[in-house]
Amino acid sequence: MLAFDVLLVGTAPSRPAVSEAFPEELVETRTASGVDDALEALDGDDVDCVVTDYALGERDGIDLLGSVREAFPELPVVLYTADGDEAVAEAAIDADVTAYVAASDDPAEDGIVDRAIEQARRNHVSATVEESDPTAANLKLAELAMDEAPVGITIADPHEPDEPLIYVNEAFERLTGYDTYDILGRNCRFLQGEGTDPETVDRLRQAVDNERSISVEILNYRKNGEPFWNQLSVAPVHDDGELTHYLGFQTDVTERKEVELRARRQAEKLRADRRARERLLARIDGIVQHVTAATVESTSRAELEERVCTAVLKTNDYEAAWFGTRQATSDRIVAGERAGCGGVEELFVPADASEDPVNEAIRTGSVTIAETESLPSDASHHRFAPPQGGVASIPLRYRDADYGVLVVYVSQAAPLDDHETAVFEALGRVIGTGINALQNQRLLATDEYTELTFTGGPPAPVIAELSDRVGCEITYRGAVSRSDGRFVLSVVASGADAEAIEGAAQTLEDPPEVHTVATYDDACLLEIVPAGESIVRTVLDHNGSIRGLTADGDHVELRIQVPRTANPNMVVETVIDRYGGLSLAAQRRRERDPNSRTELAESLRDDLTDRQLETVQKAYLSDYFEWPRPVSGESIADSMGITRSTFHQHLRAAQSKIMGALLEEIEPPPQPN
User: Where is each PAS domain found (predicted)?
Assistant: First the structure.
């Protein structure tokens, strides 16, 4: 390793406090007592710097300085003394002293070690090149500029073992946190650490060995261990083709590098996300198509569920699937249609397994994912889910209607991610909508239905709340759907005037809209628009219809009709959960009137526009067709937000279609011969 030779002459420089302060690995120190001893030491060996006291016996440091200048004009001489005064300093300057340092008790305070090392370094740099070399000549001239440069500058000696650094500027010290004497004489690899890229180091090494320039970005470490990105440029310096030094430039580019790395990581994440989405689309494209086809083309719920299960298994990433519904008697989730479940006869999830993903999906209404290894050892899912796979539970809902759950078992090769979960959420809504549509078709087509009768008192539908507040009887007549999706309930109130009911509405927590349509001697015809979800929407979402709703003070009777093929438990649970004052009083199986005009009703509903149907319903529920009319066409038009002429136009069109359809159904009387 490179070491500088420093000669300490006299009492002040030779004391242990000074000589021991020089780093052994960088500086070799020798001592001399007087002028003659010093000159003898200089004559025999190469010395990089002389540090001398002023008082040297019969002669002094100024005499020694003069002798050194005659024999070694460029050798640095530092006058270091506690005996000097202004006259001594002036004499030293006149004799071309390199530096004058007043000695103190603590060498660290007066800085003699740093000054001596700096001067030794400068002398070593000058001595390694010839004065005739243009690079050498310019080096001295440029040294002051390099010292003040804003970037780190280093010079390494390729002729010494391990190419030690022989010069560093202040910017390099600031950049690395090391002092000069920590750096000089060492190879620059001391800045490397555990995060430094070995390939970058190899490239640097090869460039140095081949005596060629190179510029790299390398992760280095400061003295305090803090990493920083160093833009390092190394260039060889030649003299007539011979390598003399290596010049290095260092710039801290940590901020820019971190921005680039963040951008690169973000780009890699985006690419990974894109690949994941592409895999997701490839995986679920088939299942989406098949589920949509099953929803649209199936003629029964059983067919829909069977086709969906088949579609799931067509994708190799899914092991098995089954549909489950809650059993009314045991409250457990029991499997119906299934695929990939082998010969398992009975498949269910107990009601008390509250943390099971199937129960959680039904409770929360959201897709629930669970890894196989996280499930209890006695869970039935272990029979179908691979050890490193998982289970996805997909709730099936249409608005407030609950149609159970679809359970899918995922293989190890295809763990579920957020994208696929979102698709399952959408598929659950598609399947729920399809089941709801099939139930509605059955409601219209079947001659059998279930009639549910609820009785009780408030809390109950808004009609019952108003009846209880006013103490009158209110009877539901029908409802009309508005364009905003809310329902206008037509009711008749007996035993109270309209103003009392309108006043009572304002006392409710969520006041409904109340409009007076007509008044009679002992009753009034009203329109009520509930503030939140109405009982009409609740029943329709479960494929049912309201057949009767009467409230008389604190007593309520509600009759709901649902298809015979529908599960009435869902309707019962929803009604009781929403209206805590009601309870199921009766459940009866009924048959429709065989003389009912179901097909005619379906034909009219298809033939009438939404506005025409709303108009004729509004007119009928407002007793517009009674005589004398309790309400004018203009009043009904105002309540619908249309003009009187538009109301009559829609009404006449609807009447024409209805009469035309009825006349087609009626056979003409036989004509006389």
Answer: 138-217
